[in-house]
Hints:
The complex is a heterodimer of chains A (about 220) and B (about 525).
Chain A: E1 19-24, H1 30-39, E2 49-54, H2 55-61, E3 63-64, E4 74-79, H3 82-95, E5 100-103, H4 110-122, E6 126-129, E7 142-149, E8 165-173, E9 179-185, E10 192-194
Parallel strand pairs in A: 1-6, 1-7, 2-4, 2-5, 5-6
Antiparallel strand pairs in A: 7-8, 8-9, 9-10
Helix pairs in contact in A: 3-4
Chain B: E1 20-25, E2 31-36, H1 38-42, H2 51-57, E3 62-65, H3 68-81, E4 88-91, E5 101-104, H4 115-128, E6 135-137, H5 141-150, E7 156-159, H6 165-169, H7 181-189, H8 195-198, H9 203-209, H10 218-226, E8 242-252, H11 255-276, E9 278-289, E10 294-305, H12 308-317, E11 329-341, H13 352-372, E12 378-382, E13 392-396, E14 415-427, E15 434-439, E16 442-455, E17 472-479, E18 484-490, E19 507-514
Helix pairs in contact in B: 5-10, 11-12, 12-13
Amino acid sequence: xxxxxxxxxxxxxxxxxxxxxxxxxxxxxxxxxxxxxxxxxxxxxxxxxxxxxxxxxxxxxxxxxxxxxxxxxxxxxxxxxxxxxxxxxxxxxxxxxxxxxxxxxxxxxxxxxxxxxxxxxxxxxxxxxxxxxxxxxxxxxxxxxxxxxxxxxxxxxxxxxxxxxxxxxxxxxxxxxxxxxxxxxxxxxxxxxxxxxxxxxxxxxxxxxxxxxxxxx
Amino acid sequence: xxxxxxxxxxxxxxxxxxxxxxxxxxxxxxxxxxxxxxxxxxxxxxxxxxxxxxxxxxxxxxxxxxxxxxxxxxxxxxxxxxxxxxxxxxxxxxxxxxxxxxxxxxxxxxxxxxxxxxxxxxxxxxxxxxxxxxxxxxxxxxxxxxxxxxxxxxxxxxxxxxxxxxxxxxxxxxxxxxxxxxxxxxxxxxxxxxxxxxxxxxxxxxxxxxxxxxxxxxxxxxxxxxxxxxxxxxxxxxxxxxxxxxxxxxxxxxxxxxxxxxxxxxxxxxxxxxxxxxxxxxxxxxxxxxxxxxxxxxxxxxxxxxxxxxxxxxxxxxxxxxxxxxxxxxxxxxxxxxxxxxxxxxxxxxxxxxxxxxxxxxxxxxxxxxxxxxxxxxxxxxxxxxxxxxxxxxxxxxxxxxxxxxxxxxxxxxxxxxxxxxxxxxxxxxxxxxxxxxxxxxxxxxxxxxxxxxxxxxxxxxxxxxxxxxxxxxxxxxxxxxxxxxxxxxxxxxxxxxxxxxxxxxxxxxxxxxx
Lengths: 217, 515
């Protein structure tokens, strides 16, 4: 049983910060996390996306599949050590050659995340760290926790899964209030947009009390 | 002061005064002498003799089995090391490539202070590395071969040029022409002992009489030695068109020294490339160790370039710090193994921003590849196949630009499990969507399902286990917790499975996770 986070009435912070962190609330939410991560590109940015992760990550969760991520040119860099992954992320962000650099990295230190933040500003790119858990200090501007939700209704076939939906919970934001938003994948553009709140998504009412909403920075 | 005692009894085989030979089995299984030390040669033994004969002559001869493969490896390594004197070094093809090296020093001798100085240097360096060598310089490989082996002063370095080569060769025995035993015996029968004896002979008659099975007759060998016929040599490494190298009196013993000299070399190399409008796509740095070994490091680039600063960075990322230095390097060589014409304005049709973007992406891929390795920086390549795991292949990103895939087949998972994982599934109808399934030990109840999407087997591609390739029915399903999965059933009830106990029942597989 998942605890539904309170839905926020604040504006969904769609423009990405240079460095953000996001984790899947459960292992099965990894595809939703990846979809969310790909949506954190600056709109209209056609530069490729680099993803780095340990080899075991790809064995466990599967490999990113081009036809399922249509319109995203991908570069994959399987690494063996955290240092290697952080180095690859920093190089990619600083080069200005990629729109987004994703890294399934655990245990990055505050200094290391600061370097990434700086590199991302330099390359006008977005860096997204995908750790297993959100703990420790980080220079990331926002920390997200992603979980899958039941899909929206498919207007053509009510028995089929409709457009993908997920809950993006902002656990910590610098200068922003924590909150949660339901996002839905647009069939045409493949991007995420705020789901229509009135459509009935089976979630608890807005302002559900008692859920951990993380620490405000 | 204490006298040093040997740690073990002296090995008689190592004593140069003891006759010693390496033996090899010939095709008939008889042991024959393959190599001899000077003491054995002085005792009157010669190569090709049977071991039994030799033992009869010298009862205290020590014999050990020869290892021609190890010899060939060692000589090849030496050939690479000899690249310091010539860009084109080849193994002598005679006697199975075990006995000699040809260095093409055309136009390179002035770099070493002339031919005599070069020969002296080669002899000294090889002696330091523990190899005795006989050397000679001549206008043709054949003449050099003859003079190094049969020339006066024991191969101390005869230097012959176009004018003198005839006179230098004349007093040598005909064996020096690289001829086989049969031809040699025949020549002796005719009383032709010295190469000079052949000069006045009518060529047509010689050619008719001396034709051996391999087609390389006496006349051809003579022509090769005198330069009337060319002779192609196969270098151990293809000679690079562009190379820069430097040597020092004092060996460089630390990596920082190597890095400093590498930047000089990079500048040396990039100048001729610039002059010719070329850019390098692959570079090799070769360090020549004073102990007779070489260490190398190569980098590859997706796009041709000649920026020395970028090369240095790539070499650092490819592991310059781990370069084996041994006792120190006394020469460094940087070669451009692959070059490509570079136009100053690349891609006129591309916009300036697009060009800059493509360049920075190529530079990023080069850098990542140099550090992580070519097989760890990948980009998907679409393949014309309708089997999902085969429709996309991950290829090294070096030299290609990542492209976005098109999704025209319907909804595909974002994460693909390759290979698919087996799933226990229960369906309400045998050929319908699953109602429940267990994947990775968790049971899930299906609330919504979409399918089937039927993918026919690629029957022309047999499975490695030789089993029948069967149809797949794909379903997109959603479970009661909101997870979305991509499952398929392999095998059709009815057409591909009739319930026969010999047949495999259709089975369920998890192939990917949808967002």
